[in-house]
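The material for today's practical consists of a large collection of protein records. Backbone structure tokens are a discrete shorthand for how the chain folds in space. An example says more than a description, so a record of this kind follows:
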Amino acid sequence: MSHLWRGWCLLRPGVLLYGGTIGTTQLHAHHAVHLIVSAEPFTMADAHGRRLTTRAAVIPPDTGHAVLAGARGALLAQLDPGSSPGRSLLAHSGAGADASTWSPPFPHLAHAGPSPRHRQVAAPLTFTEPSNGHEHSFEAAAALKIVEDWTGHRGAEVIPIHPAVEMAIAVIPTLLIGGPVRLDVVAAAVHLSPSRLAHLFSAHVGIPLRPYVRWQRIQHAIRLVAAGETLTMAAHSAGFTDGSHFTRVFRRNFGTAPSTLAAAIDWLP
């Protein structure tokens, strides 16, 4: 069955969360650890056309995938690969480039479905829950709790990250405001050689620094759109050449145009 994207979206440091109906996408790859949990089966394909029909999937960063058949009642989370929840989910899922590895070995969760409206929820432990008063506030808070269940961040141990990489992740958002982010500048800020930082960053985050910075720019633009900026203004403010440049990068990362999702999403504060 063909479905159109329609739902709510919440952006917090380290996670972009979407709830509602997921539609189809073109083949794309983004620099996030990708989690989809749905009340209905959906079908995905990897870069080689291998298919998977499931109700839960974890896709690693920079891994080509497409949604061939969407579903209603879905929860989609894109986790920063440098965050502890993102690294924890990826480490425990065993997901790789082949679609057959995307259905995670968490049977007690994989068949539960999101059903966020019907769960009693305490305050999320990792992510800041949305403010009250929005139509989807309770649903989003419940969804954040589900993401924490999946990532193992309900009191589980934190996977360690090298201190220099942690410092680099912290300094990159500040550098983004000033323009292009160069490896040598980030390395100087964390007191390492560029080659050493490049090696550590890839090893601990799972992707090189350059695509990670690009992912941060996309997230910054999304935050601005959620705050009411036009796509063109958001693109310029996030460091893209123009709206067309942002659209091309967005399509490569999400498999659809930003205007398509912007019209279908109700953003939560």
Observations:
- The two ends are 32 Å apart (CA to CA).
- Residues 163-254 form a domain with the Arc Repressor Mutant, subunit A fold (CATH 1.10.10.60).
